[in-house]
Each structure stands twice: as structure tokens, then as C-alpha cells.
């Protein structure tokens, strides 16, 4: 009989690329015996294929991430079943919290830089679903069965490979939601025990943190489609202790009718707006820790996108909702709530933001 190292490789029933199953946002955590809850990780979604000695770390968009995370390749070969497909998230943990900025730095064109970072800030991979083992396709199996099989094949897993914590206790899930935001978690996932794996469909649900703050509206970008002028997004700012206005993100997702309406509303605030504007391009670059504090700066993340913008006089304040702030900026696009004509722009500071106390990442891996 041939040794395991020389046996014929199985043709995996799930072939790359495949899009992962997605989630939709909810306002309240579902409760009942049909649900399994997991912490929502803030990292790079990935589907991992192992076929013999071959490993493919596939991104959410179907591209290979192998070259950006070389430190994960050997552990995946050593610990995963010889033929399998699993779903998970790549994360980097530092100082007891997830560090998404460190994760982004990995997407770098220089191989030498990637290798250096892989030693300085090594990544981990957290697995939470199973698509195939050997010749068996698990996608039509109920999630509770996929989860049990995942636990069995990863029972001896060791860092940098983890299986995500899971519970059917909604009170524990709510406790995770409250306690672990400071460690960089996005919120809580809820998955039906009977649910199958549906690629590229939003069949899971997620409860994410949402807070509100008042921001200076210091500029806008045009909407790039349509024949009539329309506003694409509003550029938001908050004042730091030294009195500078820092660009913290944008808010958008307006209806087309609202985009047209905003053109007329913002017109009076455009007059003489470029004069002494705090984000005037003539001020030159303004960067901190590799992140632009002003809009329009090109970086490897912008990928040549048109980031041109129009200034507004520093007079408007908007209340926006956001879910997470990282390195002084909104992690995702904020949502417009209302205008605050009763508030002065100078009052829009970082002091108003609620800061979640940190929780050690190891607490959620106590198991």
C-alpha cells in the first residue's frame, strides 16, 4: 500500500474560485433554539483549499492571498485534512486586540516587505465553516453538522490556526457583543442551525455596533453617474486637540432624489469655500502613521480611483451613524442622520466619541 504522502490526490468537490456565503445586517439579535452565535471577526475573509501539498488562500473576491501571508502556508498544510475546503477570516492580533491596519499593510507589491511583516506581525486564521472534506461536499449539510465536523477535524488545532468560538446561548452572545468590541470585534453573527452553505447569498445575519456623532461637513464628491448633477458623498471631519480638522471619512448611500436635492442645498456653502480651507491642497501632504488626514491623497488602496472633491465652507454640521472607528477614521462609510444647525463646527471633536474599553483577545479563546 502506498504511503499517505504518495497516495493519489482527491479531486475536490468544491473548486476555486468560489464566493463565500454573506450576511445581512439586523437591528436585534434573533433568539431561539434554531440559532448558533459567533463573534464577528474584523479581518480578511478567506476560503482555504487544501489538496495534498497544495494550498490556496482565496480572498472574498476570488483572488489568491498566498503571497501576502506566507507564514500561514506551512501551518495549513500541517493541520488541515489532506483534502478539504474551509471558510474563515485572516486576522492580526497585537496587544490583546485585532489590528486591521496591520492587516492592510500586508497587501504590498514588494515581496521583501511582506516577508518582513510576516515575521514582525504574523497573521492568524480563524475558521468557522466547512465546505468539503475528501470527496464529500458538505455545502448541503445543515450548519450544525458542518460545525461538528469542523470541530472534529480541528480538534488538535494550534496557533496560528483557530476555530471560532460558537454558542447557542443568546445571553452569552449578547455578552460577547458588549465585552469584546474593545478587542476589535465587529459584533455578533447568527447562523441557522439548519442552514446550508449558499455561496454569495446573504443568508447569515449580523448585529453590529452603531453609534452616532456630530461631524463637520467640509466637502463633497460628485455622483459619477447620471446626466443631472448629483452629490455622491459628504466629506466629514473632526477637530483634534491641536485645532486641526482631521478627515474621518464620508457618508453617503443617499437616494437619487436626495442626491439631486443636496446639489441646491450645498450651493451657498461652496462660495469662497477654497479660501483658507483647512484641507487646502496647497498645504501639502499631511500624513500620520501612513494614513492620510486629508481627503484626495492617492495610496495603494485607492487603486487609481478619482478622489477629487469640492470644498465647503466650515459651517455645516451633520449627525451621522458609524459602527467602528480605527486609527482616527470611520472603518466603514457613515450613515447620514440629520443636519445639526444648532451645533457649532468647533464643537465637533473626538471627545464626543464613545471609546470601548479593551478586552484581551485571549479571553475569547479561553477554550
Quick structural summary:
Helix content is about 15%, strand content about 35%. It has helices at about 75-80, 100-105, 110-120, 145-155, 170-180, 255-270, and strands spanning about 20-25, 35-40, 45-50, 55-60, 85-90, 95, 95-100, 125-135, 135, 160-165, 185-190, 200-210, 210-220, 230-240, 245-250, 285-290, 290, 310-320, 325, 330, 335-340.
Which key features would you list for this structure?
OB fold (Dihydrolipoamide Acetyltransferase, E2P); D-amino Acid Aminotransferase, Chain A, domain 1; 367 residues; five-stranded mixed barrel
Protein described:
The chain has 367 residues and is of the alpha+beta class. It folds into two domains: 199 residues, DNA ligase/mRNA capping enzyme (D-amino Acid Aminotransferase, Chain A, domain 1), CATH 3.30.470.30; 127 residues, OB fold (Dihydrolipoamide Acetyltransferase, E2P) (Beta Barrel), CATH 2.40.50. It contains six helices and 21 strands. Strands 3, 4, 5, 8, 9 and 10 form a six-stranded mixed sheet that branches. The longest helix is centred in the C-terminal third of the chain and has 15 residues. The chain is elongated. The two termini are 39 Å apart. The N terminus is likely disordered.
